[in-house]
Amino acid sequence: MTRISRTFAGLTLSAALGSLACGTTLAPKELMDARDAYDRAAKGPAAKLTPAQLDTAKQALDQAETSFKDDGDEEVTKTLAYIAMRKAQVAAAQGEVAAAAQRRDQAARDLQAAQLAEGDKAKKSLAKTKAELEEEKRKLDAERKQAEADRKLTAAELAKKDQEVKKTQKQLEEEQKKRAETEKRLSAAMASLAEVAKIKEEKRGVVITISGEVLFASGKYELLPIAKSKLDDVAKALKEQGFKAILVEGHTDSRGTAKKNEELSFQRADAVRAYLVSQGIPSDKIKATGIGPSRPIATNDTAEGRANNRRVELIVTPE
After folding, report:
1. Residue where one domain finishes, among candidates 121, 147, 176
2. Looking at the structure, do residues 232 and 169 belong to the same domain, yes or no?
3. Could you report the per-residue pLDDT of 135-159, keeping only the tens digit for each?
4. Of all helices (H) and strands (E), which one includes residue 311?
5. Bridge-based pairing state of the strands 311-317 and 205-211
6. Helix 29-43 / helix 74-116 crossing angle, nearest 10 deg
7. What angle do CA 143, 145, 151 make, to 5 degrees?
8. Residue 269: how many CB atoms within 10 A of its CB?
9. Interval 62-79: pLDDT, tens
């Protein structure tokens, strides 16, 4: 349902001037990288030895997935995905450290067993085991240092990314507030406009019909003071919502000659066009034409019918 339908039961201007379209969105590269990082961590020693850290990475990945599925802001999704990737990498590194510690402990147990053995074979085995233990210790120390460096780097990066997420969320909240304020102003302008104009959606565009009695004195094309006030509402609504083009059509009843009615209808349409331009409507987006009596919407045999036929129509083409 268009915004015009929601605000005026099918006859508002706002929704008819634009519509949203959505389609299938591919996951950003950052989210794909986060998924791969988590899969690698889950298949390594972290799943058994450091499950808490792996669960933290999974929660971060789920948060990024939720942001992506809910069609959230793409930058927020990318940031959350990056955070999830880093947490998965840290979990994997901590799992490797824990595995190395296990190997060290096993080597120590082997060494103790070897010390109880007798003979040259036991001594040789002991020397080999001791060398292996020293190598494992060296590797473990190196891995611990690297893990600590990664942890510090990740903490700094996460803090920075957290600030970026908060900044983006704040910007989104401000934009939502601005949109709400714009909608409020537009609704107020349309409510005022609906008091003097009929609004309907047709194939040719959104048609705003204003009675000639409101705009002009009989046989004249100079705008009445009240007409300018009403056209101010039209200009305000159009500028709030946006549009592609506007055609102003002047219409008359059948009294008088066809030539004179066509001239008068054009003069009236052009007077409306000129006033809207003076109120900020771009001149290259609005044109005027005189239709005369050739398109009546009521009979010309009665005073009421003729009054309905004397009108100005604005045909608005949405963006």
Report:
1. 176
2. no
3. 988 998 999 899 888 888 888 888 8
4. strand 311-317
5. antiparallel
6. 20
7. 100
8. 24
9. 999 999 998 767 899 999
